[in-house]
Amino acid sequence: MRITIWGCRGSLATPGPDTLKFGGNTSCVAAELADGTLIVLDAGTGIRNLGLRLAASGPTEIHLCLTHFHLDHVEGIGFFAPLFDLRTVLHIWGPPSTERSLEERISLYLSPPVFPLSLADIPAQLRFHDVPDEPWRIGDADVFATEVSHPSENGSVFAYLPDHEPAVGVPLEALSPDWMSGFAIAVGATTLVHDAQYSEDEYQSKIGWGHSSVADAVVFASRATVGQLLLFHHDPLHDDHELENLQERARELWTGSSGPPAVAREGMTIEL
Predict the structure, then answer these.
(1) What is the pTM of this model?
(2) Which fold has domain 2-271?
(3) Distance from C-alpha of 72 to C-alpha of 13, rounded to nearest angstrom
(4) 5 near 246, Cβ under 8 Å?
(5) pLDDT tens digits, 214-230
């Protein structure tokens, strides 16, 4: 499995000279499986560049898994080039709702006046799937999701928690695993991509906003005994220099036995 980061910014895209190293596009991660299956996690602005690559030589069947429907995780879907190819079969997976179907929720964005086209105008073949309560298969991957925010036969596990606040103002060291949000997804993961939007000082005024401090991300990953921690969902106000400082702070705090944490950046690839 090859993981590629196409967007790792949180809340709002931040292009410009101050974000060239780590990138300014919002959340989008691609997982290319050994059997050729392509799974795309979230459709932030990073999905545009992924789509341009796929338009040239990518697979015609794609699985897009949406963690939730905040704008920074769906705003790129209308600019995903395979949508405009009749040959594309796009499976869209998303959390179920008792109020609106997944198709209806997607159409709130892909319709006028927010977007110039409606779903009925999209040439691609769209297939909508509610994420099941139990683990399911996409290609040769086992996929598992819970309401907070994955194991495999070959021992490689990729866990993705892009918007996650495990502490909510409570010291994580004081919580048992069964009281820790998201622990079941992350425990024992080969690679964990985790929300680390705030510094420790910033987090104090943003408790309950649904995002994590770098310090809490490190403690969470250490408690979950992950092999590799990638800090994700970078705050729009954090330029490259600030992200380098946060990476240094994460490494100071890291007590795990595996390699030190790293800040996710656009274009980064991980082989599992």
Answers:
(1) 0.91
(2) Metallo-beta-lactamase; Chain A (3.60.15)
(3) 8
(4) no
(5) 999 999 999 999 999 99
